[in-house]
Structures are given as structure tokens and as C-alpha cells.
Write a structure and sequence with these properties.
This protein has 242 residues and is an alpha/beta fold. It has nine helices and eight strands. The chain has one domain. It comes from Streptomyces beijiangensis. InterPro entries: ComF/GntX_DNA_util-trans (IPR051910), PRTase-like (IPR029057), PRTase_dom (IPR000836).
């Protein structure tokens, strides 16, 4: 019932801007511009984990963008999924050439732990991916979400872990569900998530998908995988580094 109440309350209760708190608007024009107005750019964490595909992000993870993502992810502001999906759709468009092929775009979200989904009452990355695929289809781009990745073992909480520790924590943790590889055939796979920090999750997702489709060793070359996220640390944007 928790998800149902969130959906209804988002429609009937007064809302403030998810980015800056300005009253009577779910997302003000200024915060929307910060989220998806600048256009998606390539991001590269430092250090960059092996196996990380080319990643594009819509915005830097700071200020209003950070507030919007946390509001949707942790505070149940589900009405923000539309704006976040629009941002992710822009990053997917930028990543599409790196996914290779000529088939439909297949958005594969990085899965959250089941315990995290239960605690939050929803799966943020999947919800945003669904919104992004709808946005892409509205603009004539064939796209659909394939949530084929699963966690096959428990992982520790990533917060507080270094880049190296995150890689070790996630190594071998993901797998494509039975029959999932067949669904991926003929499409252009773009891994999607709400946020990239060190890149460890996307690298592990790329390994799992590549292994499932028989491309287990080479992920960085064009024609294999692309990846798209709503936001990444400012330090991962060469043009935004302070």
C-alpha cells in the first residue's frame, strides 16, 4: 500500500520544488535547467574501473540535481520521475552510438538490492528508466526497458567504501536472469542508472551482460555497450571540474 499512497499523494497534495523548495511547483524552471538543460556529456571517474563502458550523464551531482535525485530515491517524491526520465533520455541518446547495432534501444537498469527496494517502497532506477523509455518513444526513438539483471549474492552497503572497495564488493555480484540474453539479442544495449559515483556498478553490470551474450572480455570498444545516468560527480566531467 505504501507505493499506492505515494502515487495518490503526489497528485493531490501541495508540492514544493524538488530542487530548491520553491512553493507550488514540483520542479521550477531553474532546477529543471540544471537537471537536463545543459545536454548530456561523457563522464569518466578517476580512477576508471576496468570494463567500464562509455558513460554519459545529464548533469553534475550537486545542489538542485542532488536534491531532486535524493527526493525521488529516498523520500518518495515519485512525481519527479518524469523530469528525471527526461534527463536520462538525453543521456541515453548520447550513449546510443556506443551501443552499436541498428536495433531498438534496450535500457537495462542496474538493479538495487531487494532490501533497499523494500525499504524505499520502489526501485528508483527502474522507475526512471521506464520514464526515459517513454520519453524516447514520444520523440520517435524505439526504446524499451529490459530489467534482466539480478543480484546473485548479497553485497555490503556501498556508502563509505573507496573506489577499490566498491569494485571488490561488487565483483561477480550481478547476473542476467535466465532467458534474459535471448531478449537482448538484436538490440542496442544501454545500461542505465540514476547516479554514477565510482563506476563500479556499471562496470559489473557490463561484465554480467557481456558474459551473458558471449562478449565477456571486451567492453570498451564501440558496438558493445553504452551507459547512461542522470548524474555523476562534478569531478567526472572534464569541463565542470573545479
Amino acid at each position: 500500500m505504501r507505493w499506492w499512497w505515494r502515487e495518490i499523494s503526489g497528485l493531490v497534495l501541495p508540492v514544493d520544488c524538488g530542487g530548491c523548495g520553491r512553493p507550488r511547483t514540483a520542479l521550477c524552471e531553474e532546477c529543471a535547467g540544471a537537471l537536463y538543460g545543459a545536454g548530456a556529456r561523457r563522464v569518466r571517474p578517476d580512477p576508471e574501473p576496468g570494463g567500464l563502458p562509455v558513460v554519459h550523464a545529464a548533469a553534475g551531482y550537486e545542489d538542485a540535481v542532488r536534491a531532486v535525485l535524493l527526493g525521488h530515491k529516498e523520500r518518495g517524491a515519485l512525481g519527479l520521475a518524469g523530469a528525471l526520465g527526461r534527463a536520462l533520455a538525453g543521456a541515453v541518446r548520447a550513449s546510443a552510438p556506443y551501443a552499436g547495432g541498428s536495433g531498438p534501444l534496450l535500457l537495462v537498469p542496474v538493479p538495487s538490492a531487494r532490501s533497499a527496494v523494500r525499504a524505499r517502497g520502489h526501485d528508483p532506477a527502474r522507475r526512471i528508466a521506464l520514464s526515459a523509455s517513454a520519453e524516447l518513444r514520444r520523440t520517435g526513438v524505439p526504446a524499451r526497458v529490459l530489467a534482466v539483471l539480478r543480484q546473485r549474492r548479497a553485497v555490503a552497503d556501498q556508502s563509505g567504501l573507496s573506489a577499490r572497495q566498491r569494485l571488490v564488493n561488487l565483483s561477480g555480484a550481478l547476473a542476467v536472469a535466465a532467458g534474459g540474453a535471448r531478449l537482448l539479442e538484436g538490440g542496442r544495449v544501454v545500461l542505465v542508472d540514476d547516479l554514477m559515483t565510482t563506476g563500479a556498478s556499471l562496470a559489473e553490470a557490463a561484465r554480467a551482460v557481456g558474459e551473458a551474450v558471449g562478449e565477456a572480455r571486451e567492453f570498451n570498444g564501440p558496438g558493445v555497450l553504452g551507459a547512461a545516468v542522470v548524474a555523476a560527480p562534478v569531478s567526472a566531467f572534464p569541463s565542470l571540474r573545479k
